Amino acid sequence: MSEYRLEMRGVSKSFPGVKALDNIHLNVRPGSVHALMGENGAGKSTLMKCLFGIYTMDTGEVYVDGEKMNILNPDDALHKGLAMVHQELQPVPARSIAENMFLGRYPTINFGPLKVIDHKKMESEASKWLKEVKLNVNPNELLQTLSISQMQSVEIAKAVSMGAKIIILDEPTSSLTENEVSGLFKIIRELRQKGVSLIYISHKMAEIREIADDITIMRDGTYVGTWEVKDISDGEIIKQMVGRELSNIYPPKNDVEKGEVILKVDNLTSIHENIFRNCSFELRRGEILGFGGLVGAGRSELMEAVFGLRSIKSGKVYMKGKEQTIARPKDAIKDGLGMITEDRRGTGILGCLSIADNVAISSLNNYLIAGIALDDGKIKKVVDENVSKLSIKTPSNKTLIQSLSGGNQQKVIIARWLANNPDVLIMDEPTRGIDVGAKYEIYQIMINLAKQGKGIIMISSEMPELIGMSDRIIVMCNGEITGEVSESEATQENIMSLATKF
Amino acid sequence: MNTKSLDIKKLLLDNGIIIVLLLLVLFTGIMKDNFFSANNLRNVLVNVAPRVIIAFGVSACLITKGTDLSAGRLVGLSACIAGTLLQNKDYANKMFPNLGDMNIFLVLLISVAICAVFGFINGVVVAHLNVPAFIGTLGMQLIVYGVCLVYTKAEPIGGYRTAYTTVATGNFLKIPYLFIYALIIGFIMWFVFNKTRHGKYMYAIGGNEAAAEVSGVNVKKTKIIIYTSAAVLYAVAGFLLGAKSGGSSVNMGASYELEAIAACTIGGVSVNGGIGRISGCVIGVLVFELLKSSMQFLGIKPDFQFIVQGIIIVVAIALDIRKYIQKK
């Protein structure tokens, strides 16, 4: 028996013009949770793709239980005991849970050359493995009736049922509630006890602390080192990841002056009352207003309604004291609102367009000559100005936005709104999936906007960020506003108690 | 060095179909003396002109991830409407025997207005009723064909006034009028695509419709404008085609939309939306017409010409999709 369940030795991988991985090592002990950390673009996904044979590595070797493996593709990996639960799950929602678990390897009864699927066996097997991950559902239910966390459990059950010795979890908690996270951790601990090794990719420090045994850190495609989690401090992890010391995670705010009420939302109720109801709040100039709560509390939906993306049944929205009828985002933008949505890929970036087009799109009205032609010079000026102001790292403004990293894409979206100069900017999970360095820069931008007298609303599921950045935090639970905490009294505990009020 | 050779390979693959077709054209030119004659090239240009106008309209729909299958039938309807209003006074089978000589420009406006109504309906169906463009405009294709049958009673239309046919067959300093119209319309469309808010909105919708809406683009209105203006272009093309052929029937323009989609794709307009240029439309149509002309010169039977055209369409789109998959 080898000391390690999985060993990756000296893995290097180059793409035309870039060295994506340079001599990386990864040693995972049996029955351990191994955190893999690094900023976005550090090469974590590339390393995993090499492991699963999606990319061929230029140099390097993979050993499972001391035996050298040559993994050809993800399917081959599964047979050799490696399974991956993806960040974005890719199941077949309109088929049953059991069918999803046995997709491509249905148990069959053979009548000579004719193979018929053995539904009974498939169901009983599925039930057995679902129990293993503490998921109490009927395997004949359609997968789409499950929540995301339950689907994740199904994926894990599938991996376990195939005898996976190594399971890779890629940002598994990014769309889970606190409760679901603790459920997932319970499953992880049990698997670990049974000798399964898990590779845990995440940006969330608290989770790493709680669940991981070892940690390997990567930076810019190079191997930084491996530690036991108990031997390394949070500050040290961040320092190793970014290669510099971040003395403060949140930039100083220096008490920005608060001005008059700029946005007032009065008794807003969604057209589907269960989503949100009777929500009222005010936002002042120069204020950063945090919105806390669990995923599904209705925070995003409330803000989307204010921005005209969702219909309301009753209630009013006032901008600068004037009542507004907001039917679609176009109206909201005209009234001085801007919104950075939660789903950057789905509703943020215009993937196949350039950075310049992405920045200019919502402020095109400002560049018209005689109401018809666009003034290219003026557009270029505004784009250049914002791209350099936000220090967006790109070879040129003609570069397609889809080729940038997540953090830089987010900055382009921010630039889009800065170009439009809104009075109120709503930011829904502004730092999701963004590395530590870029996060700090985004916080800095938020504070600068507040200093200019703009009002900022930040929805965040990351408690430390909410507390560190907000002047005031409104907490929602199950579609209702359950309370408000000021900057001085904000603690994880009292926010949590409001977020779980009923 | 390595990246450079890769670039050449990529260039060849990305423009593979154009290169193959141009090689065929070159081959034809070497084999057949008259192929590169001024006369034949003129002929090709005259055929390209109305088709490229149609392609401009279709490309706008394609860029927003839509399509317009009613294009060909709208071309036919426009040609028939214009034809019936511009027949000679003494022509025996005149559709409206008591109609005097109408102003030609007024007739163009009438054709354009009627087609624009159908285009507007296309836009409303696609944008407001959320019917997939493929289905919505397929229905419109049948509707317009029916309307045209009812209007013409399936009779062929002929006996045009010379004033009308000259609109298409005339020359200015040996340059065909048709070519000049296409050039002017091409410039206008280039301006619309690249220099106007509407153009930027169109590309944004193709890039990511939901994100465009969040950014303040009025997606529905933009789509309606796109489908309506496309129909206006088909009407103009139909008006010119009728004048060029000196007669028309309900079958005029049939399946021109497919040729236009193929030409756009060959010219780099992506069926996945967000990508496409006016120059691409022009190149696509030109290459496609050269292909047709080459096949005629090489004496390939018309039956086989269809098979070849079909293959080209599928290969062009397969190559386009390949580019998209690679980008992921």
The H/E string of chain B reads: HHHHHHHEEHHHHHHH
Strand count, sense and barrel status of the largest sheet of chain B are: 2 strands, antiparallel
Distance between termini of chain A? 51 Å
For the secondary structure, the number of strands of chain B is 2
Unreliable parts of chain B: none
State the helical fraction of chain B: over 70%
Mean pLDDT of chain B: 89
Can you characterise this structure?
The complex is a heterodimer of chains A (502) and B (328). Chain A contains 17 helices and 24 strands. Chain A has 502 residues and is of the alpha/beta class. Chain A folds into 3 domains: 6-242, 3-Layer(aba) Sandwich (Rossmann fold), CATH 3.40.50.300; 257-336 and 422-502, 3-Layer(aba) Sandwich (Rossmann fold), CATH 3.40.50; 350-420, no CATH class. In chain A, helix 4 packs across helix 5 (148-161) and helix 13 (376-389) packs across helix 14. The longest helix of chain A has 16 residues, at 178-193. Chain A is globular, with a radius of gyration of 25 Å. The model of chain A has no long low-confidence stretch (mean pLDDT 87). Chain B starts with a helix and ends with a helix. Chain B has helices at residues 2-14, 16-31, 38-63, 71-85, 104-127, 133-152, 162-169, 177-195, 197-207, 209-214, 219-245, 256-266, 278-297, 302-327, and strands at 171-172, 175-176. In chain B, helix 3 packs antiparallel against helix 11 and helix 3 (38-63) packs across helix 13 (278-297). The chains are: A alpha/beta (502), B mainly alpha (328). Chain A binds chain B through residues 16-17, 307, 309, 328-330, 332-334, 339, 341, 346-353, 357, 360-362, 364-365, 368, 372-374, 376, 402, 416, 420, and chain B through 2-3, 6, 191, 195-197, 200-201, 203-204, 206-208, 210-218, 270, 273-275, 327.
